[in-house]
Amino acid sequence: MASSRPQADEERRQHIPGEPGLWVLLFADLTVFGALFIVYLVKRGQEPELFAESQALLNRNSGAINTLILLTSSVLIVFAFQTLQSRGPGALASRLLFSGILIGACFVVVKAIEYQEKFAAGITWNTNNFFMYYFVLTGLHLAHVLVGLGVLMALLPITRGPSVTSQQVAFFEGSGCFWHMVDLLWIVIFPLVFLVR
């Protein structure tokens, strides 16, 4: 019995969350965004005044609020997963997951208000190079948020079922990893586009 405990601890340390195919998807996504970040930085270096003037028109408060929204949502998803693992399906895991989804959906609302403000001011992706990259980066990220919310909603039946299988745990864990990647991307996009001069 004593020897099985260290073995279980070692297996937990070596455990890679989700399926291997998921990590291919995540790394491919991160590579695409990484390339976009590099292109954005190069263009900003070529037109520093235009980018600085355009950046000043962004609403930093909405960007900061969205950062807090995604961080809070990610923490709730972690708690939901831990609850599912330790206690199994039940009301607590379901409430934590639903709260994470609901808070994550607030990101979409804030981003829609932010876009509406830009369009009302006559600012579109055709305005200049800065706003082209602004809409490409934030729009592509928003698409990832919407996909992530859909995936998280698909987890709700797992938290409400009578029991949970190892395959369902792996799906939940992998979905959480995707959501954390979405969070990580925003943590890079927000300072890069909204703050860094």
TrEMBL record:
Location within or outside the cell: Cell membrane; Membrane
Topology of the protein relative to the lipid bilayer: Multi-pass membrane protein
Membrane-crossing residue ranges in chain numbering: 20-42, 63-84, 90-110, 131-158, 178-196
GO CC field: plasma membrane
Pfam families: COX3 (PF00510)
Keyword Membrane attributed: yes
Domain Heme-copper oxidase subunit III family profile: 21-197
Record field: catalytic activity: 4 Fe(II)-[cytochrome c] + O2 + 8 H(+)(in) = 4 Fe(III)-[cytochrome c] + 2 H2O + 4 H(+)(out)
GO terms (BP aspect): aerobic electron transport chain
Entry-linked InterPro entries: Cyt_c/ubiquinol_Oxase_su3 (IPR024791), Cyt_c_oxidase-like_su3 (IPR000298), Cyt_c_oxidase_su3-like_sf (IPR035973), Cyt_c_oxidase_su3_a-hlx (IPR013833)
Superkingdom, taxonomy of origin: Bacteria
CDD domains (alphabetical): NorE_like
Keyword Transmembrane helix: yes
Similarity remark: Belongs to the cytochrome c oxidase subunit 3 family.
Protein name, per record: Probable cytochrome c oxidase subunit 3
Origin species: Mycolicibacterium insubricum
